Amino acid sequence: MSRALVIKATAGADDPERCNQAFTVAAAAVASGVDVSLWLTGEASWLAVPGRAAEFSLPHAAPLNDLLDAILAAGRVTVCTQCAARRDLTEADLIKGARIAGAPTFVEEATTPGTQALVY
Prior knowledge:
5-stranded parallel β-sheet
């Protein structure tokens, strides 16, 4: 059975180290051939808007936009429905390849046999 990883990023620029950890782990997992689904919630939702990941900066960390590109190349990026609504974001506002989905989809992904879920 193949393994999958669902990662929920709950922080953005408000907590850059925690945010970067989620993206770094997701990109490393994608590079290792793991099926990855990265969920952006709370302030992390903004990072699915074009240009926002490029503005993110953390010393001694890979550029967030590079990590995001790597994740999008072989994984999935989802913005929480309620988080998007609170920020007046629609799928038209997001980077190519990102989607908006809600808790039922998150639960379905996170509880699939062989899946590990992490929250940052």
